[in-house]
Specification:
By secondary structure, the protein is mainly α. The protein has 15 helices and no strands. It is globular, with a radius of gyration of 22 Å.
Amino acid sequence: MSARSLDRRVLTLLAILAVVVVTYSIIRGATGTSDFKNPYRVARIFWETGALDIRGEPRYPPTIRVLLAPLAALPLGVAAAIWTVASLAAVLGLPRVFERLSGASLREQALPWLAVLTYLLDAFALGQAEPINLFLVTCGLVLARGTGPIAGAALIGLAGMIKVLPVVFWGVLVARGRLAAVAVGAGLTVAASAVLLVAAAGWGPGLHSIAEWIAVLREGEGPWGLVATQNSLRENNEALPVVLARTFGDLDPDSTRNAVSLARLPLRAVWGIWLAMLAAMGAVWLLSAWRALGWQDVTTRSPRGRRLH
């Protein structure tokens, strides 16, 4: 099902929604009330001084400071507008890419899109990198599924150079037996990141920025550090450990505004629940990967047990 087959009234409503969301996102970005200001600020510092400010925004990898530097050379409002339009273009391109990846038509994607609509609108309003990264990762999966597994793994790595979490999708390639492609793609990502940082900031500062970033993450950006420093305990932080801490943890009510507190458990118990949930999700993923590999092995063998070519 293509956009041409949609009812004109539906297209009109979608267009109006897109205009409203994009306008709102640009206004928030231009006024410095969205998350876009954070990577923009450290990229601006790099553009003006050549310094890789890690502690100013440790949640983004050092590479974002260089990748975003040309955009940070522009005024905040202009940069926010370009970023928002790029995010919109990425989202508009996703249905076709999802169709190539899964075979699901636009009509069949309607309910999943509706299920994640609030998160998508939130990502737009906050000027986050998720729309662009989602497009990059999905394109990477499409390539990896076809004849370009290394290029697909590298594209996922590019998304990881913007924000780290997308590299988790290398696990999908592992589950599909693309181990060599993942190894090469990860190596290319690490090499490209190092070359980018060294070429932009120099040998010493470039490599030091990586070590400093890892150290800062260990100090204060894990779930323990976020709660201990009362950093990002706001209600729209969707990170699982923060949500668990706000809902079940024994925290100062003044630091958890608008939280729905269901219990007052010690934080050690909350972290135990979080780790148990991670372990359960990891076990489900491993089981799914094992079944996928087993099914792939069965479908590529003849009845006599010989692998089909």
